Amino acid sequence: MPVQGRIVVSDLYCKGCELCVAACPQHVLQLSPDRLTAKGYHPAELAGPGCTGCGICAVVCPEAAITVYRQKMPTRKAAEA
Amino acid sequence: MVMEQILPEEIVYQRPESLVEVSTHYCPGCTHGVAHRLIAEVIDEMGIRDRMIGVASVGCSVFAYNYFDFDWVQAPHGRAPAMATGIKRVLPDRFVVTYQGDGDMASIGMAEVVHAAARGENITVFFINNANYGMTGGQMAPTTLPGQRTTSSPGGRDVETAGYPIRAAELLATLEGASYVVRRSLHDPKNIRLAKKAIRTALEVQAQGMGFSMVELLSICPTNWGMTPVDSLHWLEEHMVPYYPLGDYKVAPMVAQIRI
């Protein structure tokens, strides 16, 4: 199973520029169709499962709006124990 | 029904501490934000936030002092390298950086940056090249490409009357006092990572007192170019990168020894 991740996009910063949507290698990002930020932009969000937590969206984000989380892989020691 | 399994998570990326928690005034997609983020990340990694002094320029980048969480001063148009010279000479233990756009550094401030580099001042210049004057409405800048339409060159830049664009990195690289002069781009994840590495090296150059360092960053201006942010990135890659080749223009031998 591929590594699972998720992102949290801050509505304070996101301006809906779509750079993360275009850059996402898994194509799991979209601009929210039914949500608006205080500034009136449709913020980016995860469209469905498949995020691997690679962090490329955060690398291209001009607003530093994205926090990326990734599932911790169990270490070999923990798996054996 | 799929059972949700709660697994421990780690944070892969979060907003750097050196950025203030406010929304920027930049247009959606503007890569000024990427440049800000990279500089903040490098400052966090090096742990030098309490020793930073930034010099803001005039243009969109003027409000950099609102977005970085360390001390800033604001210089008259184009005079940031001159002001940075004074600050660095009075406070040599601080990291002094200027953050300038092309309308600021490559036109009115060209003399200041050239002489700061010629003197080998131990400062770092971040030069954001987006091929026009962004804040004032997209007029032709010294870096506007031949044939590029702007609000003050509606028929495209005519090199007969307006001359040719200035390649700032190549120009400064000819000066003896400059130690590290490179050009990077912010149009895709790979180049953004390379840009971050260059910013890190430039600050290491200053940390070790090796002289003048300058990082030119090719940037987009979607609003004034009249394109979406994603189209702007493609335009940058197709039109700006061929005219402004990416690469290291001056890496002094002692700078090449720096290992990060």
How does this model look, in words?
The complex is a heterodimer of chains A (81) and B (260). Chain A has one domain (5-80): Alpha-Beta Plaits, CATH 3.30.70.3270. Chain A has three helices and four strands, in the order βαββαβα. Chain A has helices at residues 19-23, 56-60, 76-80; strands spanning 5-9, 29-31, 44-46, 66-71. Chain A has a two-stranded antiparallel ribbon with strand order 1-4. Chain A is elongated. Chain A starts with a strand and ends with a helix. Chain B is an alpha/beta fold and 260 residues long. Chain B has one domain: Rossmann fold, CATH 3.40.50.970. Chain B is 38% helix and 18% strand. Chain B has helices at 32-46, 64-67, 80-90, 102-108, 110-118, 159-162, 168-173, 189-207, 222-225, 229-243, 253-256; strands at 9-13, 52-56, 71-74, 95-101, 124-129, 178-185, 212-218, 247-251. In chain B, helix 1 crosses helix 8 (189-207) and helix 4 packs across helix 5 (110-118). The longest helix of chain B has 19 residues, at 189-207. The mean pLDDT of chain B is 94. Strand 4 (66-71) of chain A pairs antiparallel with strand 1 of chain B.
